[in-house]
Design brief:
Blueprint lengths: L5 H4 L2 E3 L2 E5 L5 H11 L9 H15 L4 E7 L2 E9 L10 H13 L2 H24 L7 E8 L8 H15 L4 E7 L5 H5 L3 E6 L4 H5 L7 H5 L4 E7 H4 L10
Parallel strand pairs: 5-6
Antiparallel strand pairs: 1-2, 2-3, 3-4, 4-5, 6-8, 7-8
Helix pairs in contact: 2-3, 3-4, 3-5, 4-5
Length: 246
């Protein structure tokens, strides 16, 4: 795992909440929390839903140079995954693991449809980034900011947020951006005074992607609005907040 300073490598405690570097053994907690937050509703047995969660977590880990989790003892509370556009990757094995998960998803009809939806979503995010000229250093991307529902109201989101901002400041990175959608608490970013750099309404998703909505009406009719927010690190350091979202 790459570190920009000894302070970044060390665990930090805020009350009973400890923020520490993520290790690979934390993966089941991340996948389980993501799955509990964004289940595949068409999968009552949960196998495809959990594989879908693993796909998203691994997708965010590919390219991540900093991964931090919040815990209270053995209880997983939240995570931030950051891509700084430089430095060593946290988990080089993530790409190979992602390929294996995608192969498992492709083995069933529902799994293949779920994987297609995930990739469709991710390609749309990339296109929005390209339109705004975001996918270039020195801007960093906060690829995942997720807080467990069990931790809401405990200040976990605020602690993870400030931990990320302080790291970016120490690393000399002036600006960062993130993706979010209407299934999350988008108002948090507005409250923080972040700039809404891009917005794609759900009703416009199919046309933007060049897809026929009749190919998968359940997906396109219920799809969330997508947003990209950005900010200067220095403008955010004096602000606090609590949020859990993708």
């Amino acid at each position: 795992m790459t570190t920009s300073s000894n302070r970044d490598q060390a665990s930090r405690r805020r009350g009973s909440v400890e923020i520490r570097p993520m290790v690979w053994a934390d993966m089941p907690d991340l996948v389980g929390t993501f799955d509990a937050t964004w289940k595949v509703q068409e999968d009552p047995e949960g196998t495809v839903s959990r594989l879908s969660a693993a796909h998203f977590i691994l997708h965010y880990l590919v390219g991540a140079t900093r991964a931090r989790i919040a815990v209270d003892g053995q209880d997983f509370l939240g995570v931030t995954l950051l891509a700084e556009g430089r430095g060593e990757l946290c988990f080089p094995q993530a790409e190979e693991e992602l390929e294996q998960v995608d192969q498992q998803l492709s083995a069933t009809t529902l799994g293949a449809k779920t994987l297609d939806r995930a990739r469709q979503w991710q390609l749309t995010e990339v296109r929005l980034e390209e339109q705004r000229g975001l996918a270039v250093p020195p801007q960093a991307e906060l690829r995942l900011f997720l807080v467990s529902s069990r931790a809401r109201g405990r200040g976990v989101g605020g602690a993870l947020w400030r931990d990320t901002l302080e790291h970016l400041d120490q690393a000399g990175i002036e600006r960062f951006y993130l993706h979010t959608d209407s299934s999350c608490d988008v108002g948090f970013y507005d409250h923080q005074g972040m700039e809404r750099l891009a917005e794609l309404k759900g009703r416009d998703h199919a046309a933007f992607a060049g897809r026929d909505p009749s190919d998968d009406p359940q997906f396109f009719e219920g799809i969330d609005d997508i947003f990209i927010y950005g900010a200067r690190v220095s403008d955010q350091l004096g602000k606090d907040g609590d949020h859990g979202g993708r």
